[in-house]
Design goal:
Blueprint lengths: L2 H15 L11 H14 L6 H17 L3 H11 L3 H8 L7 H18 L3 H12 L20 H4 L3 H8 L7 H11 L3 H4 L2 E5 L2 E4 L15 H15 L7 E5 L5 H12 L4 E5 L8 H8 L5 E6 L11 H9 L9 E7 L23 H9 L7 E5 L4 H15 L5 H14 L5 H21 L1
Helix pairs in contact: 1-2, 2-3, 3-7, 5-10, 12-13, 17-18, 17-19
């Protein structure tokens, strides 16, 4: 390998090592493989095997991400979570410390040098290091994005287009700060749906995206939840919501339907299991000051009499000395109007001597659900509502059955299965889809 190539490789390594706040850009699988490849090229073994293996690892990592090296760097840059992106979300650029701005500008120039290293160039360096007659396949800056890579929307951003064409990335600092203020950084930039798991937030790559157009019935409840969610997004005071009622009535689906409708406006959905409610104050603290708006989603909420996790939820609902952040609400679903189970034995009797203020304890349990600002009730579906849901879903699925036959089979299905509900209607349509498709092929 000639001296000029060696010098170029050393330059890229020094540039990568000089990153001050954007080191996380190279902490990904692709970034680590890139650095390993540079190291293998700088110190090649006699037969070039290490270079070939390192190149294979880098190529495979790009293939796993379905991204080019350039697309990957830009994606990591826009999603990076570091002191600059975190502070830029919360304040204007002029309010940030000058050393932080200088460090961000320096790192942008460094990343631009790494961006300019093409897959074709790396392939040629590997060919020379391993003395190959033909250069290995190059994964260059082609439009290799795939819907699963999450690039389809981000590529349309003016900032993305500007970074692809500008000569000096340090000049986009103001645009980058504005992007972070709008889109956030880190997990909240990368994922629309998240869950609290093992004491931390993790992204959900494939959330259950329910569309509002798929939901039929309970229109008043839908309208109330939509208005409350839009108030949250507009920065107005929004209410915590309890959705309670019969099983299969679509309570959870309605909450999930908020995400695809409002994700582009900055809405994020965080799923928290009942067993993790004690961590709610810690979760809420992570959301404070972040530009996105959050629905904390607690599904199938109820408590046994000896559980005290509801006290952590009570703190979030009612507040304490710490002010509640205005960018979050709790949406909880339950089959019970009174969320804490109560037994007749809990009621105070004249002979009770165990607790002086026993009735106060009972009242705390009974009134817990009242601490939600908005309660939406989902009554069991009657036959008219059930058949309306069936007809609506059948139309969306393009089921080629006459209305009379569809309703007859739907009522039979409800009788034999789980009764009349939105869930039963969905299961019935899911059953019909392959049956009717198969019949159509036979005809």
């Amino acid at each position: 390998m000639d001296a000029q190539v060696t010098h170029s490789i050393q330059f890229l390594q020094r540039q990568a090592a000089s990153l001050l706040i954007y080191q996380s850009v190279l902490h990904s699988e692709v970034g680590v493989a890139f650095l390993n490849l540079l190291q293998a090229l700088r110190h090649p073994d006699p037969d070039g095997v290490n270079c070939l293996r390192a190149y294979g690892d880098w190529f495979k990592s790009l293939a796993n991400q379905r991204q080019s090296w350039q697309d990957h760097l830009l994606t990591q840059l826009l999603r990076a979570e570091n002191p600059f992106s975190q502070q830029a979300q919360r304040t204007d650029l002029v309010s940030l410390p000058p050393p932080l701005l200088a460090a961000a500008q320096h790192d942008l120039q460094v990343l631009q040098h790494l961006y300019a290293c093409s897959g074709q160039q790396l392939s040629q360096w590997v060919q020379a290091a391993a003395a190959l007659p033909v250069a290995p396949t190059a994964w260059d800056q082609t439009r290799t994005g795939h819907p699963q890579s999450g690039l389809e929307g981000i590529r349309k951003l003016p900032l993305w287009v500007k970074l692809e064409g500008i000569e000096d990335w340090s000049g986009v600092l103001e645009d980058l700060a504005a992007y972070y203020r709008k889109a956030g950084a880190g997990l909240f930039s990368e994922y629309r749906a998240l869950r609290w798991q093992s004491g931390k937030l993790t992204g959900i790559s494939y959330p259950d995206l329910v569309r509002l157009k798929e939901l039929k019935g309970y229109e008043a409840q839908q309208e109330a939840l939509i208005k409350n969610t839009e108030a949250l997004l507009a920065g107005y005071p929004a209410l915590h919501v309890l959705l309670y009622g019969s099983r299969g009535s679509g309570k959870s689906s309605l909450v999930k339907a908020m995400l695809p409708r409002y994700a582009e406006q900055g809405l994020r959905l965080i799923e928290v299991a009942k067993s993790d409610l004690r961590d709610l104050p810690a979760i809420v603290d992570q959301l404070r000051g972040v530009p996105q708006k959050f629905i904390i989603f607690v599904d199938d909420l109820s408590f046994e009499e000896d559980e005290d996790a509801y006290k952590a939820l009570k703190v979030v609902l009612e507040g304490n000395l710490t002010a509640r952040p205005q960018n979050m609400v709790v949406y909880a679903t339950s089959n019970r109007r009174h969320l804490v189970r109560e037994f007749f034995g809990d009621r105070p009797r004249p002979s009770d001597a165990d607790e002086i203020h026993n009735w106060d304890t009972v009242q705390e349990k009974l009134s817990f659900s009242d601490r939600f600002g908005l309660t939406l009730t989902f009554e069991p579906a009657d036959q008219k509502t059930y058949l309306a849901i069936v007809r609506h879903l059948a139309k969306l699925a393009e089921i080629p059955l006459a209305a009379q036959e569809l309703e007859f089979q739907a009522l039979q299905w409800a009788t034999r299965h789980n009764g009349r509900s939105g869930r039963t209607a969905r299961q019935f349509i899911d059953f019909l889809i392959p049956q009717t498709r198969h019949q159509s092929r036979l005809e």
